[in-house]
């Protein structure tokens, strides 16, 4: 019970003290004396210059009651302070606020959870008050520290622990709102404050991730959840904090996120990290997205020597950030993103090569294999990010990125590539070539250029078709797939998928346009280069079925997109030359590969004959295919690429009816008005400075050599078009 003052002494006391004393009942259970509180409020409003003294006296009483553990009187004092604070909005409230904050600090310093929550509630009410003028001298360092500590409460009672954490989060939210309203936002964004606020919020957000293990966007919380769930409240506070960030202080709010994720090892698995950065990207202003991407790239550089799964986790976070930023402003970071990712792709390949070379027998081999698989996770994550980012760029930027990536591909014998491969070795170099081409394949997917010159300029086509990228069947597959992405401007590739004899090409409903002058010029300049690549690609000993399928698709796409009469004649000469090479076999190819080439030629001549719709030509091709079906099915794609296909012992004893004859083709096309003089000249790959191939092409010298007879001229008389 408080000490009562006698009547004589009371009359001598200042009026404001008497009014303050009267609001306290003899029994604190009775609560605040409302009638006397109204008198005190009226007095404070009428004489605002007394507010400072009223606040000081209330603070004095509250400090004494806190020390004496008189919680009832503490509650009454804070209720009175709250009412005075809400009622008074004059210039003189500034000194009163200092007393108020001093009392709130006393409550927060106490060890009693109820008093800490009480002080927090009072501070939140104060934070929602808009003062007439900002107070530039007031700082909230203590409150930031104290509220952050409350967010990490480890009280033994779960309910009390949750209550304290909720109070801490609400207190941080109040500090953020108050500093912005006071135009002192610069103070709250200082690193020493952000390093306390952000980890405190993330710590509470992390708890719901652990409890629910939720994946994907969270459902909208109810009003009750927002008040009772620390994780939901922390997430809302985090969103609000980021939403108030500006250009100058964005980085200070994001960097503590990296520190928290590093310290708690949350990159592997990275569900929580992805969740955090989704919140960041959706909460900040769109024009600042590239700042966050730059920070992620910088952190990836800083952690470049960490475990593969950690780096993969960071890269996957980058992918999510890029996916969101691509819908808005990415800013000047486009090349920086690709340059950093390609650098880390090289590092990953280098680490993988080192592990393979340093591996030993026994258990060490198992460890090496595990690291190898982990590095592949990193590489796949990088390629996926490159592809997604590239596919969301406008065409003019995507063209630049294609050139940028192609410039990184190691091409032996040239100095055009800018990627350091000195430490990779042959195996590592091949691996980086595959990774870069996979990246290029992702970027070129969906790219549509009006002219082929725009899609395949000489500076891009020359290294793409380099012999250095033909030494491995997987490299050749990727090169062809990149070319298909750039050539297929009318989405016909899906209709051509799989090498087969098409009964009626008209059923495919091939889409095309009239060949433009730029495309004609492109073929005159680069056609021989394309033919050579296809010719040599067919004769590689390590070809698998997919290689033949892609080579067939290449011939078909050139026919659809780039062919006039001259081009088609060249393509038919190329097909006949491939047939000759399979029969003569100067390269000592296995029988499967020879039959595969024969099947490829059959599929393509069947396609091109129907495209130009010359009846005699179609009849010759159909007749050869019919004879093969009965006598030599291994010369057709439906049979040779089937499991357990019976192969012939040799091709020398076969009758000429099984082969496509140049003289028959020339006769059929010549009768329809085609210029067939060049069909009599066998195709020979041109050797250039760019392609000093050691495999010198041969001139066919077998007994079935004749004049070619399957070419077309555009515009076609075909009903297909």
TrEMBL record:
Biological process terms in GO annotation: protein localization to plasma membrane
Protein localization: Cell membrane
Keywords associated with the record: Cell membrane, Lipoprotein, Membrane, Palmitate
Pfam families listed in its UniProt record: EFR3_ARM
Gene that encodes it: EFR3A
Domain of life: Eukaryota
Task performed by this protein: Component of a complex required to localize phosphatidylinositol 4-kinase (PI4K) to the plasma membrane. The complex acts as a regulator of phosphatidylinositol 4-phosphate (PtdIns(4)P) synthesis. In the complex, EFR3A probably acts as the membrane-anchoring component. Also involved in responsiveness to G-protein-coupled receptors; it is however unclear whether this role is direct or indirect.
Keyword field contains DNA-binding: no
GO cellular component entries: plasma membrane
PANTHER family in UniProt: PROTEIN EFR3 HOMOLOG A, PROTEIN EFR3 HOMOLOG CMP44E
Name by which UniProt lists this protein: Protein EFR3 homolog A
Family of the protein in this entry: Belongs to the EFR3 family.
Key word Metal-binding present: no
Membrane topology: Lipid-anchor
Subunit composition and interactions: Component of a phosphatidylinositol 4-kinase (PI4K) complex, composed of PI4KA, EFR3 (EFR3A or EFR3B), TTC7 (TTC7A or TTC7B) and HYCC (HYCC1 or HYCC2).
């Amino acid at each position: 019970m408080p000490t009562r003052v006698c009547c004589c002494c009371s009359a001598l006391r200042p009026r404001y003290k008497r009014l303050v004393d009267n609001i306290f009942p003899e029994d604190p259970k009775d609560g605040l004396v409302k009638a006397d509180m109204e008198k005190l409020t009226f007095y404070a409003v009428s004489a605002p210059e007394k507010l400072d003294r009223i606040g000081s006296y209330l603070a004095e009483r509250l400090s004494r009651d806190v020390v004496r553990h008189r919680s009832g009187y503490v509650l009454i004092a804070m209720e009175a302070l709250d009412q005075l604070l809400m009622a008074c909005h004059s210039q003189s409230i500034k000194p009163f606020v200092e007393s108020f904050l001093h009392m709130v600090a006393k409550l927060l310093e106490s060890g009693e959870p109820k008093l800490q929550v009480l002080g927090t509630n009072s501070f939140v009410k104060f934070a929602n008050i808009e003062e007439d003028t900002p107070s530039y001298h007031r700082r909230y360092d203590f409150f930031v520290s104290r509220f952050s500590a409350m967010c990490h409460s480890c009280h033994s009672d779960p309910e009390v622990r949750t209550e304290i954490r909720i109070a801490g989060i609400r207190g941080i939210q109040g500090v953020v709102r108050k500093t912005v309203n006071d135009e002192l936002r610069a103070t709250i964004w200082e690193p020493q404050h952000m390093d306390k606020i952000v980890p405190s919020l993330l710590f509470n957000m992390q708890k719901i991730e652990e409890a629910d293990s939720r994946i994907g966007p969270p459902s909208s919380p109810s009003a009750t959840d927002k008040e009772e769930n620390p994780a939901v409240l922390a997430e809302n506070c985090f969103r609000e904090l980021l939403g108030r960030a500006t250009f100058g202080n964005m980085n200070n709010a994001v960097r503590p996120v990296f520190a928290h994720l590093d310290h708690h090892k949350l990159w592997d698995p990275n569900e929580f990290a992805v969740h955090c950065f989704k919140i960041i990207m959706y909460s900040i202003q769109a024009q600042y997205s590239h700042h966050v991407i730059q920070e992620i790239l910088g952190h990836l550089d800083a952690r470049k020597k960490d475990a593969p799964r950690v780096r993969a986790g960071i890269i996957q976070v980058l992918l999510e950030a890029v996916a969101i930023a691509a819908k808005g402003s990415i800013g000047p970071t486009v090349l920086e993103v690709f340059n950093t990712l390609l650098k880390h792709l090289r590092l990953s390949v280098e680490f993988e090569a080192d592990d393979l070379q340093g591996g030993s027998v026994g258990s060490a081999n198992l460890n090496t294999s595990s690291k190898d698989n982990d590095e592949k996770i990193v590489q796949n994550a990088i390629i996926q990010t490159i592809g997604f980012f590239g596919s969301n760029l406008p065409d003019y930027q995507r063209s630049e990125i294609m050139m940028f990536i192609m410039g990184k591909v190691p091409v032996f014998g040239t100095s055009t590539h800018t990627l350091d491969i000195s430490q990779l070795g042959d195996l590592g170099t091949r691996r980086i070539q595959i990774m870069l081409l996979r990246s290029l394949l992702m970027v070129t997917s969906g790219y549509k250029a009006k002219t082929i010159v725009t899609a395949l300029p000489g500076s891009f086509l020359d290294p793409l078709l380099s012999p250095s990228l033909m030494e491995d069947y997987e490299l050749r597959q990727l090169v062809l797939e990149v070319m298909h992405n750039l050539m297929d401007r009318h989405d016909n590739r899906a209709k051509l998928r799989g090498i087969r004899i098409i009964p009626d090409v008209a059923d495919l409903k091939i889409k095309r346009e009239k060949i433009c002058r730029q495309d004609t010029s492109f073929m005159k300049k680069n056609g021989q280069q394309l033919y050579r690549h296809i010719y040599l690609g067919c004769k590689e000993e390590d070809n698998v079925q997919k290689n033949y399928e892609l080579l067939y698709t290449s011939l078909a796409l050139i026919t659809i997109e780039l062919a006039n009469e001259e081009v088609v004649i060249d393509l038919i000469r190329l097909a006949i030359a491939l047939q000759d090479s399979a029969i003569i076999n100067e390269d000592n190819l296995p029988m499967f590969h020879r039959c595969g080439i024969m099947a490829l030629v059959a599929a393509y001549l069947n396609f091109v004959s129907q495209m130009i719709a010359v009846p005699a030509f179609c009849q010759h091709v159909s007749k050869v295919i019919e004879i093969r079906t009965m006598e030599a099915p291994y010369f057709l794609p439906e049979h040779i690429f089937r499991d357990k296909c019976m192969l012939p012992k040799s091709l020398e004893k076969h009758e000429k009816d099984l082969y496509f004859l140049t003289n028959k083709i020339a006769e059929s096309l010549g009768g329809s008005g085609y210029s067939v003089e060049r069909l009599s000249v066998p195709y020979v790959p041109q050797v250039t400075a760019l392609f000093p191939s050691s495999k010198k092409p041969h001139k066919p010298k077998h007994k079935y050599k004749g004049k070619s007879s399957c070419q077309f001229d555009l515009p076609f008389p075909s009903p297909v078009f």
